[in-house]
Amino acid sequence: xxxxxxxxxFKYLRDKIIEKQYDHLDPMQRKAVLNGENxxxxxxxxxxxxxxxxxxxxxxxxxxxxxxxxxxxxxCLKIDDLHIMKKYLNDDSFKDVTAVNKIEHLxxxxxxxxxxxxxxxxxxxxxxxxxxxxxxxxxxxxxxFFGTFHSLFYNILKKHNKEINIIDPYKAHExxxxxxxxxxxxxxxxxxxxxxxxxxxxxNSETNIDLFxxxxxxxxxxxxxxxxxxxxxxxxxxxxxxxxxxxxxxxLNQKCILDSYQNLFKxxxxxxxxxxxxxxxxxxxxxxxxGFIFAVGDEDQCIYSFxxxxxxxxxxxxxxxxxxxxxxxxxxxxxxxxxxxxSKKIICNNKNRNVKLIENNRKNKGNIYFxxxxxxxxxxxxxxxxxxxxxxKGKYQYSHIAVFYRTNLxxxxxxxxxxxxxxxxxxLDGQYNFYEHFICKDLIAxxxxxxxxxxxxxxxxxxNKPFRYIGKVNIKKVIDNRIKxxxxxxxxxxxxxxxxQLKNITVLEKxxxxxxxxxxxxxxxxxxxxxxxxxxxxxxxxxLNRDMDELQDIIGEFKEACGEFDSxxxxxDNIEKVGQTLEKGEKEDNAVTLSTIHGVKxxxxxxxxxxxxSEGLIPHANSIQNNLEExxxxxYVGVTRAIDNLTLCYxxxxxxxxxxxxxxxxxxDLLNSGELLKNCGLETGDxxxxxxxxxxxxxxxxxxxxxxxxxxxxxxxxxxxVLYNGQLMKDIARKCL
Length: 737
Fold this sequence. Notes:
The chain has 32 helices and 20 strands. The longest helix has 19 residues, at about 5-20. It is globular.
């Protein structure tokens, strides 16, 4: 056999052996794993096995090197080697250790040193999981670097700067909170997080601070930013954003250091690439210019624009990385057929994306329901009943079930009903207690004071909300009084209060006590209007340049919660029970998961409920104008978490206000589905109530229409979509339950 024939035969057998090594992968996964030496973006639909693809790509590089479909031939090749290779390929029971070692020697001449490979992902937990999975497939020797962008840049800076101290997150939180307290006497946790996120976004965008649009008043933001940065400078501290900025500065100003890392990191693999911000992309371009970028992600799951991520980096990958190649993983191995089909109907409406096929591996169909309710409370009861039914059938556990929502605020009604049904639950993206919001705490303090005028903590919290000209010295005298007596009496006995203030205190006490005798639906409005708490909130918004609508949502939710209890005492008892349950919930393993949709990316559950599928929530009112496509991506992420069954819920009123069904439900074709009428249980002969026409009876039901005979003998036909705008909602909701 001449040399050229020998080489050709070897290359054929070599590629077949490599393919056999990765025959557990599907053809597109294998194509990505065996990709040659070029910049490559692997666009993976949900459930496509992207983590498996990255791990096997690393294994391929460390085991063989990038030799597949190349001219690589070892110098020591003999014809006997081909016989061994053929026998190995044709005999699955081949166990000749010497021969196997010979094959490995023939094929690993170009294998990559693990030190020349880095694998970047976005959380430490994900990095550790990937490293362990890599080791578990037989890689016992030294592994490549698996870590986050921040840990990579920390290690790089550490090598060139002897001392790096990262600011404690709790300290960062404290600095910003104290800066905000300069303007107000109380600041909610979410507002502090919002400012810290804006600081991070400003730094990573490298935008001129004068041009940056902060979410709070610019002067307030500047104070927070300056105090935060000054504290770090005084104490020689950095945050994670500083790590990235300093590495970039070092690379641009010290070419020898940049060259060393360009030569060291020849193969750079990035997971969840769609979550990268501009600065991280720039750093990848710098260190990867002499090597090869292998990125994996899905622009359809890019949902963190508030952190600086954007889908363009995947859509226009070759604009960022020279000769960038796209490979598509199109098979969803997670979800049943009809969930995959539904998700495709949603996401195809976005323009800023790669046009791609998405296919289901599972051929069976699960249950997909769309349910409509008049109020969130009825929605919560339906979800709870459904979960009980799922558990009673014995096929699933509580841990197989998740309830998603757009904002944490929406979890309140679900939690209250879960407590009544004794359904165990836990939060996925951090514990959230609605009643811990500062507005809730203030309103609770008013209610507590109404039933116990000796409650000093509640008295101290509300006495100057709004400002009633009671000085700190006099308030301290009330608090320091060790006798349990009426707080208002103690204040009146101070002795140096002017007559008009004494009268105001007496009137305030009298008005607060009135709360005990009021109808439950009137109590909160009384606090807002008669006790002038709304004036305090308006002043709060004015100082922070904040939209009052956001606070109105909190007030509306609190009203709904309070209105479900006849007495103040029973409502306060429920609030205490919620707090105690949330503390226990952190330790529960077999529990229903509650989470915002943002918190579940990368997760999967056998049964998924998405509540409040309405305009203004999903899509969110703040994003409809300028970021609708990301809202659609967010809904897509929620839907594609479902493995077996999916239930979408819509309440026609949210916090007492009428809302339209989400446009995304229409894109799913659920509003035009004949199954929808069946799901709601409406049949010929059922009685319904129309907001305008009154009571009536369904006399005909076909396709997407109902015909109703009303009490005045009028026959009127209704399109299905009309029902979901609240016309016949009362009876529909009852039927669904």
